[in-house]
Design a protein that fits this description.
about 575 residues, alpha+beta, 5-stranded antiparallel β-sheet, 19 strands
Length: about 575
């Protein structure tokens, strides 16, 4: 199985116009739209990637300022000498003295950290010389400090810096309801004696971050969290994750700035001072929601415009190609010999000019053909008339001999009949030059001819002429039957057998059918094919053909066209049937 190689120049004109329009207009428009949308999405992501880290840095700065304010308040302890003196004392003379010191320190903690607008402080503690002073809003549990975690019992905690922040997983302190918090720790130093007096702890509810982070975490689909250097969650929009560890963060190249992983945009900002990192994530689809709507609207508009453009291009291509296709179609009809062509004058463009020129050329060709046809017809008529004027001499000799023989035998009535028939035949042949005659005249001529031949062959010949319907007034070409009867007489006789010739005329659907049938010798298959080939190839009228089948067939084609040829059916030894169809 072979396939033809695709070639653009082999396509029809309409297809070429459509493809060209698509390549020139639709594809560039679609490509430009895609590039514009892609660049817009990248621009949005780039702007968000710059803007969000700035917000995170700003939030970091705000939180650091807030924590610094808390540390400043914690540093105000040096303005309370009674509290410093209590911390300097390592022992008590009596219980009353111990209770007085406890009251002083707790009043300090309550007044400076738990009252007023300090809503986010959930507890304040001072650990000094195996003593713990506390004031909290809720109950808590704790233990002693370890190597890795800080507790609230025991001596003062030795800090690497004077001020330090601890996260929940770095302490053993646990408040009621597991409230998340951060622990601000400040070393209390006796600058006069250069001694460490103790450690001041302030527990801050993580809610103090929410107000600061609200400006960054305002998108519904955004997620924000804060983690320390060990990847523990310090803050998360999902409170259940606070205190747990994120093992995946180690795989992210987090630094100040943004990066995209799959369909999520990550932004981060670090706080070196407080050992934490802010991370903000948001789906890229959320960033491009508005652009997606514009994209969808653009795509819908694009397809609507493309549909209109395609329809317009189809109409344009159809308008250009249809007249050319119609012209090609009519040219193919003319190529087959059909000059009945109609090309409407729709325009004055190049195609219209070509159509007019083609129509004019066909009309001129048709006129030339008609002229040639008329000349050939007149020539055939002249030849036919010449043939009519030359009655077969053998027929005349045989007829006259038969008449002479009948005279000798004294068959006067038969002689009169034969002379009458022969006279009518001569008058029909020589006296009427019309090419078309009524059927009754042609049948009478055939009957006269058969009567004369019957007198000659006597019992060896029989004939019948029948008509069905009102057909006698129908017009038929002159001398159309006698040549066919002569053919049967010349080739049909079988020794010792009567030759029966039947002529039957019927009419149906505007076509008159004449059948000449005999029971004679017939033809073999090869002989029949040769006769049919000859009838198909030769339409001439000539004397040498003995005025036979070829002449009759040629006259029928000349008068009525190729659809009205002779039809012959013959079986060797059974006879021959010749059928003529003549339009009425």
């Amino acid at each position: 199985m072979s396939f033809k190689k695709f070639r653009f120049h082999n396509l029809n004109l309409k297809t070429k116009l459509l493809l060209s329009y698509i390549v020139i207009t639709i594809l560039p428009t679609a490509l430009l739209g895609y590039i514009a949308y892609s660049q817009y999405v990248l621009s949005v992501e780039r702007q968000v990637g710059i803007y969000v880290p700035r917000l995170l840095n700003q939030a970091n700065n705000n939180l650091e300022r807030q924590i610094d304010q808390y540390y400043d308040e914690m540093g105000q302890i040096y303005n309370y000498p009674d509290v410093i003196n209590v911390l300097r004392d390592e022992s008590y003379q009596n219980v009353s003295s111990a209770r007085q010191d406890l009251h002083k320190v707790e009043n300090y903690l309550a007044g400076n950290f738990m009252e007023g607008s300090r809503n986010y402080i959930i507890g304040a503690f001072i650990a000094s010389n195996n003593r713990l002073f506390e004031y909290t809003k809720t109950t808590f549990t704790s233990g002693y400090s370890t190597k890795d975690k800080i507790g609230l019992y025991g001596n003062a905690y030795n800090l690497s810096n004077e001020e330090q922040i601890f996260f929940p997983h770095e302490t053993v302190v646990q408040f009621y309801d597991n409230k998340p918090y951060v622990l601000l720790v400040k070393q209390i130093v006796d600058y006069e004696n250069r001694n460490n007096l103790g450690t001041l702890y302030v527990a801050l509810d993580l809610a103090f971050m929410e107000k600061t982070l609200a400006t960054v975490d305002e998108q519904a689909d955004a997620i924000m969290w804060m983690f320390d250097q060990q990847n523990y969650f310090i803050y998360h929009t999902d409170p259940n994750l606070i205190g747990s560890r994120d093992t995946e963060m180690a795989n992210y190249p987090l630094s100040n700035g943004s990066f995209q992983s799959e369909s999520i945009l990550f932004s981060s900002a670090q706080s070196v001072q407080n050992r934490w990192t802010f991370v903000h994530t948001i789906p890229v689809s959320h960033l491009t929601e508005e652009s997606d709507f514009v994209r969808n609207l653009t795509i819908f508009s694009f397809f609507a415009i493309i549909t209109l453009a395609i329809i317009s291009s189809i109409l344009l291509a159809w308008g250009v190609a249809k007249p050319i296709q119609r012209l090609v179609k009519e040219m193919k009809k003319a190529e087959k010999g059909d000059f009945n062509i109609y090309l409407p004058e729709e325009s004055d463009n190049e195609v219209g000019t070509l159509s007019k020129a083609f129509t004019k050329m066909l009309h001129e060709i048709e006129e030339l053909i008609d002229e040639k046809y008329d000349m050939e017809l007149k020539q055939k008529e002249a030849e036919l008339y010449a043939l009519q004027s030359q009655i077969n001499p053998h027929f005349m000799y045989n007829t006259l001999e038969n008449i002479a023989f009948m005279v000798e035998e004294g068959e006067q009535e038969l002689v009169v009949e034969m002379v009458t028939n022969l006279g009518r035949m001569l008058r029909y042949s020589l006296g009427n030059r019309d090419q078309m005659v009524p059927l009754q005249l042609e049948l009478r001529h055939a009957d006269d001819y058969l009567m004369i031949q019957k007198a000659r062959f006597e019992e060896s010949l029989s004939y019948h002429i029948t008509t069905n319907g009102d057909v006698l007034d129908n017009i038929t070409p002159k001398f159309i039957l006698q040549p066919l009867i002569e053919n049967s007489l010349e080739h049909g006789f079988i020794a010792g057998q009567m030759l029966v010739i039947q002529i039957q005329v019927t009419e149906r659907a505007g076509i008159m059918e004449i059948i000449i049938e005999d029971n004679g010798r017939g033809m073999s298959v090869s002989q029949l094919r040769e006769v049919e080939r000859k009838l198909k190839m030769e339409h001439t009228i000539n004397k040498e053909d003995s005025f036979g089948l070829t002449n009759v067939n040629g006259r029928l084609v000349l008068h009525f066209g190729n659809d009205f040829r002779l039809r012959i059916a013959s079986t060797e030894g059974s006879g021959t049937v010749i059928t003529l169809n003549i339009p009425t």
